[in-house]
Input
Amino acid sequence: MIIDIHGHVSAPPELYVYKANIMAHRGAHGRGKVSVSDDQLIEAVQKPIPTFGGISHLDHLDVAGIDVQLISPRPFHMMHSERPTKLVRWFTEETNNLIARQCEVLPDRFRPVAGLPQYPHENLDDAIAELERCVREMGFVGCVLNSDPTEGEGPQPPGLGDRYWYPLYEKLCELDVPALLHSAGCRSPRETYSLHFIVEETISIAHLMDSSVFNDFPDLKIVVSHGGGAIPYQIGRFQARRIRSQPDRERFEESLRRLYFDTCLYTKDAVESLLRTVGVDRCLFGSEKPGTASAKDPQTGRWMDDIRGLIEDIDWLTENDREAIFTRNAEQVYGLKSKK
Amino acid sequence: MIIDIHGHVSAPPELYVYKANIMAHRGAHGRGKVSVSDDQLIEAVQKPIPTFGGISHLDHLDVAGIDVQLISPRPFHMMHSERPTKLVRWFTEETNNLIARQCEVLPDRFRPVAGLPQYPHENLDDAIAELERCVREMGFVGCVLNSDPTEGEGPQPPGLGDRYWYPLYEKLCELDVPALLHSAGCRSPRETYSLHFIVEETISIAHLMDSSVFNDFPDLKIVVSHGGGAIPYQIGRFQARRIRSQPDRERFEESLRRLYFDTCLYTKDAVESLLRTVGVDRCLFGSEKPGTASAKDPQTGRWMDDIRGLIEDIDWLTENDREAIFTRNAEQVYGLKSKK
Output
């Protein structure tokens, strides 16, 4: 069974009509809600998506041989930096509700991962409450966590090693679910949201590695999107810093193995480098399909997000390794077997 | 001959006493200047540096077999975000003057690369004037360019693809010298300056690749520090974006080859990945020695910044490849032969 831990919801248009409306009335018309039928939820993943190569969400999964996908909100839509913050909360709750229902009507293909209502300059109370609601009441198996709810505008909250985040880490441990690090939109004119993902992952890992988070929360499960930003490629810089400044601490590469990583990298070279750097046991298959790389490469005719194919092509992986990456690690980290 | 294009000056303490003083009096005592003898300039590179493994700058070059090193200001000292801006200008000029003199007294070992007085919210007139002074009057062979003179505080100037930077690009082309992309300090509590280097390189490359800079300045020579931040590892994401959004434009990996890259990565895996991704002809040997990775790895006994050793260990490189990386590419990009 191939489990893809990094998918985002393909929602009916009603969700984005709702979003556009609350952003227009800024709350003046009240909370409202998204009303869609089960058929509309199914249609949303069955209908061809022009921007993603002209095939449907389910087609994408079938083409890649993905059996089960964990789906969370589309990050670039999450609008954590919007004001008033109740708009963020409303939209996050509606998105999570819709994800829960889509997973209910297609239980063999999807499992739900929650978005959290995060705000740039407030505490994490609403995020924690929504995480608890999603996991306890709707069977969500994890959440996404945005290290930059200012969405590129700054000043950002403290880095992920800071105690600011501890109440959320406590709740994640209590509920025994992982957080997938994944930023949302980006308002900076210098960065696309897609580039900002990479930047935030890089900053987040470095800050976590310098902190005592994994001493304070040895059971905390953090999965870093997109193969860890720049860190596996730039690891020597951080190894040297650790040796120079904290020679008695565990080596940087050991600390790095306290994290998990998805395989959302789009070249074999990069996926191999990730696997070699952090170890097969810390890597979970993730494709983000359909998403940023859902286009066929005209040179090869291959889908650029055929990450399953890239992993199949790595000749030094054993069958046991592939089973860990495609299935077992996800089952363990997300507790999928026990939660079925 | 082994040429290291990424070195930073080891200056006598008088330079930093000068800096501390102007930052304390904020200009009230006037410009002043740094007075050091030739002997002091030589002593600065001959005396052991405790933070860099207890050997001297020249020892570091000798241990690595580096014949000639291009030296620029220590980036984390450049203080581009300080006010009033005249402090930045004074310190930059004094640093460049000192670099010029150190290269004069040790002409076989060092060649000068200029720092530029950049300010967060002003035009580039002072930077351009200082570049011209350094190249025309003192024989500098290039400069460093900081994409974030706010030093992590933001809002940053537009990305490097913006016309804001064009007057500087014009001057670089007119003088026929390259710019080494390298940020300076970092005021963000989330990022060390060393991490900020990586982030800024990542953002800068992505912005340049989306721009028309290399159409408008086909002769512009930009060298990206530290192997290009996250981009070579994350290249698939950008390739896919190009194919999806600009299918008629040249492929992203071709655009990337309009840049040059140094080899300041501290693992063989990363250096190999860089060479495979951008091509041997776009890579210049750089070690940043002595610098961030000047520590011996207790596991191997090897200097962590022995990048020459890493390159020697890559078995698929030909002698001609190594000669290009170690010597020929630097001679061409920096015009070293013609400027001797």
Observations:
- The beta strands of chain A are 3-8, 68-72, 110-112, 143-145, 179-181, 222-224, 260-262, 283-284.
